[in-house]
Amino acid sequence: MFPPQSANSIPIQFITIPDPSAYKVVQLSSSPPPLIRLPLPNTAATPTYIFVPNPSPTRKRQVPPLSPADGAVAPFLMSSIQPGSMSDTASKVTTPPAAPLSPTNEVSPCKESPKSPVVVEIPQAVKDYIQQLKIHMSQVCQDMEAGLRMNAHYVNVSVSQREIARAGKNTNRCLDKELIITGDIDRQKNSMGQSQIFDSLNGKRYNVLFGNAGMGKTTVIKKLCLDWSIDCIPQFDFVFLLDGKQLALTEPVHSLQTLLLSQSSFAPRCADPDGVYAQILAAPKRVLIVFDGFDELRHYEVLLQTQKKELVASLQKDSKAQAFTVKQLFSSILQRVLLPGCTLLLATRPRGTASQLLRRADSFLEVCGFTPANVETYVSQYFSDPGLRESALDFLKSSSYLNLLCWNPALCHLVCAALEQCKSEAALPRTLTALCHKVLCLKMEKDRGSTESLPELCSIAWEGVKSNSSVVPKGRTVSTQLRAFSLRTGLLLSQSLMRRTLSKDGILLWANPFLQSYMAAVHLSLSRTVTDHSFLQTLPFQMGAKGRRKPQREEMELTQRIAAGLLFHNRTELQSLHSYSETVFRDMVASKQALVMKHLEGLCFGDLSSAQILEACNYVYEASFTHQESGTDTSAKMLTHLASNLPELLTFRGVPLNPPDVFTVQNALRAGGAEGRSFCLDLEDSGIQICGLRTLVALSNINTYRACIADVVTLWEELEKRSDEGLLQEAVSKFKIHPLKATQVCHIEHLERLVSIHTSKRLSDSSDQSNSLLAEGVPAVKELYKLEFELDPENSPLALPKLWDLLPGLHNLQHLDVENSKIGDKGAEKLANALVSLHSLEVLNLSENCIGDQGVKKLALALKDLPKLHCLSLYSNVISDEGAESLAAVLPHMASLTDLDIKYNKMTDIGAQSLGASLRKCSKVKTLRMWNQCIPYGVFERLKQQDSRILWQ
Ligand SMILES: Nc1ncnc2c1ncn2[C@@H]1O[C@H](COP(=O)(O)OP(=O)(O)OP(=O)(O)O)[C@@H](O)[C@H]1O
Questions:
Q1: Claim to verify: residue 632 and residue 768 sit in the same structural domain
Q2: Is 244 close to ligand 1, i.e. is its CB under 6 Å away?
Q3: Ranges of Polar residues compositional bias (predicted)?
Q4: 349 lines ligand 1 (CB under 6 A)
């Protein structure tokens, strides 16, 4: 039984609310019929609420009454009812608590102009369209790849929030931003379930979703769309997906309306486009636009170029005119010319810089890939047969590299496809090349007689890799037979760009980036049309400043690696990929192998960038281990050559080290060990996972290592828990942090933790094992001689208090640089307290810190007790005569001081003369720089003449 409509015809609305306990009965803001929770029979599971809306004339939206049978529809109504549609209070009640009110889920007109609320009504026809859109999305977003469905195969992955920082504190490129690569622990702290994305964004409107090829960006987006379709993202009334591939449509025949309602992926036919579009324009804050299909970050850059004024004017005047190109419309959305209030989510591979985009975006997310538990879930879901599932999981456990490749979901899919047909452990692919090869062979087995199509397809793949595109160029003729073969095998997909005009504008694109690279590599390595000369030009590690600076494109790098793998693969295995005679094929391969070897031998490893060193490890791994037996002589020589020539100080700073990368680096280092070599590893800013860190630290030929301090401490704790005393001992004694440059708040937080372990001489309160190990403290802390505090001015205040606290623990510190950190007098006082413990300090840089007389007075007292201090900079502070005099008073007691810089402060001739007089008593001082504009020129000249150690500069 349901309550009748109220007698005076005030519409009554029934809404199903997921968690009724979270809602209160509230009074509406005016004319107060209360909101009543009705204890209705048979509705315990889905309690029904009745809202008695404010019947004031400003209330526009009236939702027709629903019966309980409409339960499924009710959440949709909830999500699309905008706060303010009844009254703010009432609408707050309708918003589920899981999505806290933020600018995103508030309707702008009501929020922004409370005095004259303009409430946007959603007409019934538009509601119907929204419902249709949701239903349509819930169907089309189910498809993943190769017949897999989201509801059966989706694995709930995490997304982590990434941060950007200024490219450098003291550079004049202060507008340049770069993405920070955090350590594993911080990444875990910043990660969230995919369902929390929009809550975590907290109203941020310009969001970027990063992920390398195949890491699952599109899949996360599909999941978001599915969630929206079942009302789990109530912040948005509309979600539209725009595809970068549509940029190929160059005709000026589109409008924003047609772009969203006719061309966006997943949009169904709209019966009332004008009405829907009007609604979109009326409440843009409730619109989410997702851009996908851009291969690289830098591809967005083109869209961020300033648009012509006339174009902007005409777009703003009439965005319904069908007179614009897709590019112009994309640009206008990204540049906030069109729908400025909407939320944007841009998915992209991270390579290729796009400083403009980094500057504009408010938040950066990254798909984290599969954890080992995710891999297990994926494999278990993939193999419905329990027997197959078990053997697949067993196979995977026995093959480390294959297992690590599964970190990338697209590769995990390929691995499952290979495992499905695998009969024995020995037949398991051991490299990326062998994996892709296996998958291709399986596809071809199903499509016999297709070999003749391969060379052409491989050449198309290579053209795509060269031009950094997964789309087959429109002008490229593709024979009917090839087209049919590639679609049948699922190597290519056909996509229609003009959604409303079937296939005419269809494009062909590669379904899987790894298989595209594999096919391109087949072209490079196994085709005679690629001469030795052109093959040579495609080899990696091209030298010169440009080669070092420019990050290699992902698909190109993959192609080069796989090309190396193919060259050294078992020739019988490759038979299906070519139609040459045995001799011709053997000679061609031998010649290319020799080129590769010669190229490698010609490299000066010391000149390679960190990214290139990593590439070399991956490259040589493919060449050496693709062949199931021990590999050919040449490939073994390659590994030995790499191992013998890797720089002893091996740094991967700033280069993301993924799980499979760690494996190939480990492989190269091990080979180095066999050559009697040992290494010092720098793994800072590489994002290496803690298990990878453990693998590398466990190598016996690692002399020292650096890595994110928080991760290292976690590793120590893990080792202690597992009672792995031997490795713990190694991990503690080999760890180094000198010299330390702190550029982020977390660097200081991590250091604080390490110093506390050092001073307490134990890992944690409950530690016993590490007690003896740490009896002398942490070696890395004892050997920290130089600390540079280089946080940007906005973040320094967050970290300075921690710095002051930890400093007394750094007894052996010789060089402290806190330049340009706004420490002020208060900071100077704290520093003065800490200085008492820093007996080894030799250099102290406090330039540009707003230190005044009070601060310098405190410092002066502490400075005189630093027996080794020889260089002090107080350049560009605000010290006046009083401060100068306190310095002058302690100067003769600073027995080791040789250089004092107090230039660009505020003292006048009085302060300068005091310092000059004091200087006479300091025989050790070599230079005193103290000029500033307040010291009269004549006075300064006289002082200089009296003592030549007084300098201008
Ligand atoms: N969360 C997931 N659960 C299950 N499978 C996934 C998941 N994410 C990705 N995959 C698998 O990996 C494949 C590639 O994923 P997706 O297309 O989303 O990657 P992408 O990051 O968009 O790649 P690209 O940069 O090439 O566009 C999917 O087709 C699917 O098979």
A1: no
A2: no
A3: 84-94
A4: yes
Question: Domain check: are 611 and 630 in the same one?
Answer: yes
Question: What pLDDT sits at residue 79?
Answer: 34
Ligand 1 pocket, 493 CB below 6 A? no
Judge if 547 and 523 occupy the same domain: yes
Q: Are residues 144 and 282 in the same domain?
A: yes
Q: How remote is the CA of residue 149 from the centroid of ligand 1, in Å? A: 12
Task: Indicate if the pLDDT at residue 665 is higher than 70.
Answer: yes
Domain, as residue range, for 247? 130-367
Which of 17, 24, 75, 73 is closest to 45 using CA atoms? 17
The residue-averaged pLDDT of 255-273 equals 90
Q: 192-196, 510-514, 687-691: which range is least confident on average? A: 192-196
DSSP letters, 240-253, are EEEEGGGGG---S-
Per the CB < 8 A criterion, the answer to whether 277 and 353 are in contact is no
Mean pLDDT value across the chain:
83
217 and 354 housed in the same domain: yes
- Measuring from atom 10 of ligand 1, which residue has the nearest CA? 409
> Residue 410 CA: which ligand 1 atom is closest?
12
pLDDT digit string (tens) for 820-830? Answer: 999 999 999 99
> How much is the pLDDT for 837?
95
Q: What is the pLDDT of residue 8?
A: 38
Query: What's the pLDDT at 521?
Result: 97
| pLDDT for the residue numbered 828 | 97
Last residue of a domain, one of 76, 97, 118: 97
Q: Is 153 in the pocket of ligand 1 (CB under 6 A)?
A: yes
Helices assigned H by DSSP within 383-453: 386-398, 400-405, 409-420, 432-446
Pocket test for ligand 1, best of 218, 493, 509, 516 (most atoms within 8 A of CB): 218
C-alpha 171/C-alpha 186 separation (Å) is: 27
- The rounded Å distance from CA 217 to ligand 1 centre is 6
Q: Which residues contact 62 (CB under 8 A, 6 or more apart)?
A: 11, 53
Rounded to the nearest 10 degrees, how much is the dihedral formed by the CA atoms of 89, 95, 96, 97?
A: -50
Question: Are 339 and 424 members of one domain?
Answer: no
207 lines ligand 1 (CB under 6 A): no
Which region among 5-19, 123-137, 728-742 has the lowest average model confidence (pLDDT)? Answer: 5-19
User: pLDDT tens for residues 622-645?
Assistant: 999 988 665 567 888 999 999 999
Distance CA 178, CA 537 (A): 31
| Domain match, 620 and 509 both | yes
Ligand 1 atom 28: residue of nearest CA: 410
Atom 25 (ligand 1) nearest CA: 213
The answer to whether the CB of 144 is under 6 A from ligand 1 is: yes
> Ligand 1 pocket, 217 CB below 6 A?
yes
CA of 159 to the centre of ligand 1 (A): 13
Question: Residues 6 or more apart from 633 whose CB is under 8 A from it?
Answer: none
Report the length, in residues, of the chain: 953
Residue 695 has pLDDT above 50, yes or no: yes
Q: Ligand 1: which of 141, 142, 143, 144 to mutate, most ligand atoms within 8 Å of CB?
A: 144
Confirm whether pTM is higher than 0.90: no
Determine if ligand 1 sits within 6 Å of the CB of residue 218.
yes
CA distances (Å), origin 461, targets 479, 486, 492, 514, 517: 15, 12, 10, 11, 7
CA of 284 to the centre of ligand 1 (A): 29
Boundary (domain end) residue, out of 47, 80, 97: 97
503: left (phi over 0), alpha (psi -120 to 50) or beta: left
